[in-house]
Amino acid sequence: MEPGVAERPDPGAPSVADDPRPLFGAYGIVKRFGAFTANDHVDLEIRGGEIHALLGENGAGKSTLMKILYGLLEPTEGVVTHRGEVVRLANPEAARRLGIGMVFQHFSLCENLTVAENIALVMERGLSRAGLARRIAALAETYGLHLDPDRPVWSLSAGERQRIEIVRCLLQDPKLVILDEPTSVLTPGEADRLFAVLERLRDEGRALLYISHRLDEVRRLCARATILRAGKVVGACDPRRESAASLAAMMVGAEIREVASRPETAGGAERLRVDALSLPAPGLHATALRDIAFGVRGGEILGIAGIAGNGQAELFAALSGEVSAGRPEAVRIDGRPAGHLGINARRRLGAAFVPEERNGHAAAPGLSLSENVVLSRHATAPLTRLGFLRRGAAQALAARVSETFDVRKAGPDPAAGTLSGGNLQKFVVGREILAGPGLLVVDQPTWGVDAAAAARIRQALVDLAAGGSAVVVISQDLDELFEIAHSVAVLHAGRLSAPVARARTSRGAVGLLMGGAGDDAAPPGADRETADKAAREPTHAP
């Protein structure tokens, strides 16, 4: 057996899950950042052989507690224990020595290195390339986590990158695995395969701490949940005995208001027209766009569904102006040819854009929130004679976004990178919506946000369209699209199906198109089980 790869447990051996002591505990944890208290006397016990959910709205203190358990932060007060003994986790290396591993929401991979080179960065020195390859192969055999060690990371899908993070963690044979929003960038099929791995780890007696805003996943996987609100533990429950709605209510302290969808504005003028848009794949494992054509009128929300890796990023880049569409007439904004224009020029035509990746793409993490407002508004906002957005105006805009979208932050104008992922998402979406664009294109608008924040963002998109704007929502979340979109199209292998009114289609029919079936693949009476399976399964091996 290769070192670092756990053997299957002996059925006759004592189980760690039978140990009455918690595998790891956190007691009286307080963490202050100046006058701000992120964790306020938090208690948490994690036992072997269980998947334990840590739930809370954005800014509830989950990320801070995780960083304390992984040695990235030291608590202001309180202790961490391992099998009842107090331990000091001064850094991640100390945490790993105790058997704590972590799979981060935002990948910490070097794009230009291969899979094997990225894994080698966290392994012990002196391990040969052949030895590492054997360990990776053993994990693949045990858990089904197949990887090509020689592939460069930049060429991999999000699901394959997630797999690297998990393999790096498991090669250190952890007793506790902390997972932060592990399915946020996975297709439904990839998520199902991840769940099988997590259940296998649980059955081996390991402990898993699972952080997710996808409450149906929590109800499927977890036997216990601890709920944080405003840095404090406010409850615990068995998620299997709760509904997604009741879990969400416990997290936010109130019932989640449903999105009040509004009818499409009748007779709105066409604000976006895409015609015969074809672009070559920008990289070896990217997707070419093939003859994309659609229009969106003022007052309309067009939802674009699809499994990750089918051209969503390439389409967003072509619509936003990050990549030239070639012919000016390939993209028209309010009737004006814009296919050859860059982002700033398209913003001056009244368009706004929210990319999928908030950290580094939608926002510069090292800059303040007001400076991030300047980055997106400098081409259109009132300028001083020196050509810069007034500092006071930028700060006022950032404060307005934060208040309107309930962005939780430490200080009036902190760096974007200090916000939790969900709060940064709220800020980025709010920054673009409050600009009052005539056209908004948004990719994965509620990625990594809690139920209340998702409802707030979706309502803001609905309200923007009701005011006469055209909205394009690219999303892998079919529930989201069927909640807010007036019509839905499916992007598959770089081709876009004809948009269909939401009332005239179904999740099953859309699922068939996501799986690669033709536009007529789901006639009335089509088998629902087949359609639902297509909606869950990826179109290619991740």
UniProtKB/TrEMBL annotation:
The record's SUPFAM superfamilies line, in alphabetical order, gives: P-loop containing nucleoside triphosphate hydrolases
**Chain intervals for the UniProt region annotation (Disordered):** 514-542
The source's domain of life comes to Bacteria
Q: SMART domains attached here?
A: AAA
Q: Which PANTHER family match?
A: CARBOHYDRATE TRANSPORT ATP-BINDING PROTEIN MG119-RELATED, GUANOSINE IMPORT ATP-BINDING PROTEIN NUPO
Belongs to which family?
Answer: Belongs to the ABC transporter superfamily.
Its protein name is Simple sugar transport system ATP-binding protein
